[in-house]
Structure prediction request, 229 residues.
Amino acid sequence: QVQLVQSGAEVKKPGASVKVSCKTSGDTVTGYWMHWVRQAPGQGLEWMGCINLDSGVTQTAQKFQGRVTMARDTSINTAHMELSGLRYDDTALYYCAPEPVEAYFFDSWGQGTLVSVSS
Amino acid sequence: QSALTQPASVSGSPGQSITISCTGTSSDVGTYDTVSWYQQHPGKAPKLIIYEVTRRPSGVSSRFSGSKSGNTASLTISGLRPEDEADYYCCSFTQSYTYIFGSGSTVTVL
Prediction:
C-alpha cells in the first residue's frame, strides 16, 4: 500500500490561497491518480478533483473549477492542491487519496490537513 | 446533483442486519459498477470497505456486503457489532469523469 503524509494545518484569511501537499512513499504510484477530498466540520465527504501523477492531466469538480490548481512533483513524490479565493465555508479537513490504476476507489488516505479560514 | 442520496441515520441492535441505501442517477450509480463504500470513525480518515459494488478489500469483515439495483446501491452490515458504529459514505464515478460521494449515513448500534 501507499503511505501518505500531508502538510500541516493552515490558518488563512478570506480571499487568500492555501497550498496543501501530499507526499507518497511505499508502493510505486506509477499511473495513479491523486484525488483530493475535503470534509467541513460535522459534514460529509466532498470530492474536489484529481491529477494523474504521470501525465499531470487533471479533472476538477465543477464547483471548484477556477479556484483549484493541482500539481505534482515526481522528483519528490509529492502532489499539491492549491485553493484560491478562500471563503469561510472552505474551512475543512483536506485529504489526499491515491487511486490505483483504473481502480475507481481509494484504499489509502492521508491524515488530512486542516485549513481554517478566519479573519 | 451535489451528492448521492443516503439516509442520514440507520440504527440496529447488536446481531441484527442493517442496510444503507445510496441513490444516484443514470449518470453515475446506474451506469458504472464503480460504487465504493467507506467507513469513517470520529476523528479518523475514511476506510475503504467495499469497491466495485460488491468486492471487499483484504482484511474487511465478510459481515459487510454490497449490491446494486438500477440507480441505487446498498451496503448491508450483518451481525451488527458496537464497533460498526460510524459514518458510512458511498462514492461513484460519473459520466463526467468525476466522482461523487453520498451524503453520508450515521450508523448507531442500540
Chain B touches chain A at residues 2-3, 32, 34, 36, 38, 40, 45-48, 51-52, 57, 87, 89, 91, 93, 96-104 (CB under 8 Å). Strands of chain B lie at 9-12, 18-23, 36-40, 47-50, 64-69, 72-77, 86-93, 99-101, 105-109. Chain B has a mean pLDDT of 97. DSSP finds no helices and nine strands in chain B.
